Amino acid sequence: MAGDSAVALLIAVLDIGIYLNNPERATWYVTLPVVLATVLPIVFRRRYPVAVAYVVLVTGAVHAALELPLAAFVTSGIAVYTLVVYVGRRHAAFYTAVLSAATVVQILVQVERDRWMLSIGFSIGVYVFSWLLGEFLGARRAYQAELEARLELLESEREHLARLAVADERGRIARELHDIVAHSVSVIVVHADGARCTIDSDPAAACRAMDTISETGRSALTELRRLVDVLRNPDSETEPLQPQLGVDALTDLVDRVRASGLDVRVERADDLDDLDAGLALGVHRVVQEALTNVLKHARTSARTYVSVERDTAAVHVTVTDDGAGKANPVGAAQPAPAGGNGIIGMRERVHVFGGTLSVGPRLGGGWCVHATFPTARAGTGTGGPQPDSSTPTGKVRS
Question: 160-190, pLDDT tens digit by residue?
């Protein structure tokens, strides 16, 4: 209201100044209230634009009837501008039509005939100019409001994406910690139980079990320290880079599990060397988690089979165990997977590559984990040589 008050005061001063220089001026106690009544509504034009416009229409008619110089034209133009900007074109058009009609009638009554066209043209020109100015500033105001809305939307989307990225990173860290800790702790528990059972009857075997516990614990601590260092210093170049665990590391994984007393048989294709590093790590972690679950739930008396196959479309990972000989009768109700952190982690790893995971008990006894990682064999889809379907894929058994 401060700016509008200043405008109203300026109009009043100019109008009164021109009035005082007119030798045929009317009585001041009539003129001054009319001038003030004409300009004062401008102060409230933003808060009550429609009411102010029609008050200006009435007071402007009185002002023009007294043949006062300036305020009626200026305040009428301001009213048209205000309605265009703050109310809308439809209301502004109706008001402008009424205002123009009233102005034309008043000019025809009060002004000499030879000045009709000039006066009408000047008045209509003021209203048209006010309308165009309102359109321009209204469009600019709308553009600025839209720009601010877009910036707010982009900021909101950026915060949302940042939250999603943080959640994804937290999930990835949780998977890595679970895979490292769960497997190592399972191996440690199995060897600790074995050492306790054989410490009196076979002290040498107990010592070997304790050596395995020590080695497994140190390896887990090393991996945990490396993971923490990466989290604390993501851009550090002083630490040596370590290769990602992949399919080749399955041999070491199986050897460690066998050292725990678990009977594990492995059959894998020999054409897995060109797998993407991330996919190879996913295969490794799924096998690791499945073997860890066997150690935790079926113990070392279960016979376990690991199969890693590859065709032209996907890598298939299957880990089954016989449940330590506890068969499930055909047709019996099968318990649903518990859906713990391990299964959740496996499912997330598989879904990253658009694959599928099925986990559940087998009718013949034991448990089965089957994961499918979609991939493309090198040379397929690009016009390169295709594998001969009549030639069996090479396999590595251990």
Answer: 888 888 887 777 777 777 767 776 777 787 7
Q: How far is CA 110 from CA 96, 101, 113, in A?
A: 21, 14, 9
What's the CA gap between 27 and 45, in Å, rounded? 29
Coil, helix or strand at residue 270 = coil
Q: Residue 35 in 3-state DSSP?
A: helix
Written as one letter, the residue type at 196 is R
| Residue 385: per-residue pLDDT | 39
Question: What distance in Å separates the CA atoms of residue 350 and residue 111, rounded to the nearest whole number?
Answer: 89
Domain locations in the chain? Answer: 1-110, 248-325+342-374
* Identity of the amino acid at 171: G
| Alpha-carbon distances, residue 104 vs 97, 115, 122, 162, 200 (angstroms) | 11, 12, 11, 63, 119
Third-level CATH fold of 248-325+342-374:
Heat Shock Protein 90 (3.30.565)
Query: Cα 40 to chain center, whole Å?
Result: 51
